[in-house]
Amino acid sequence: LEGTDVQAASDLGIVVANIPSDALEGNLNAVSCAEHAVYLAIALLRQQKAMARSVEARRLGQPQGDTLSGKRALVVGFGNIAQELLVRLQPFGMRLSCVRRSPWPVAADADASAASASASASAS
User: Fold this and answer.
1) Is the pTM of this model over 0.70?
2) Is 97 in a helix, a strand, or coil?
């Protein structure tokens, strides 16, 4: 809720809630949010409505839209949801970047460089 004007939101009828999202503690909110984000990305790229019309018209096997493969995703923040999202986007062959407000620790820089090099090597 950091930086959120809860009173202003409440005055506008917007419910603000802090929902824990630590999957290690059995709370799967982060997993659910990440999966939903992937679903929305695929639905937009693959033109879900056009695909549904194609199926209704019995025109199967005609790809609609585009794929996630080779696209770049910028994830803003590096909390539980962002980490779960990155895990789910990587198998699609996306180029992933992540930014956050606070500086990355030195160890994280080394880990990120190694992961990036590994991802680049596996993509070629």
Assistant:
1) no
2) strand
Which class for 38: exposed (0-12), middle (13-18), buried (19 or more C-beta within 10 A)? Answer: middle
Percent of the chain with pLDDT over 70: 79
Which sign, positive or negative, has the C-alpha torsion 42, 47, 53, 59?
Answer: negative
Strands, E, within the chain: which ranges? 72-76, 95-99
DSSP state letter for 72: E
Cα-Cα-Cα-Cα dihedral sign, residues 27, 76, 37, 70: negative
Q: Are 75 and 97 in contact (CB under 8 A)?
A: yes
CA 79/CA 19 separation, integer angstroms: 13
Amino acid identity, position 20: P
pLDDT exceeds 80 at position 121: no
Task: Kindly report the average pLDDT of the chain as a whole number.
Answer: 83
| Distances, alpha carbon 30 to alpha carbons 22, 102, 110, in Å | 7, 21, 25
Is the per-residue pLDDT at 119 higher than 70? no
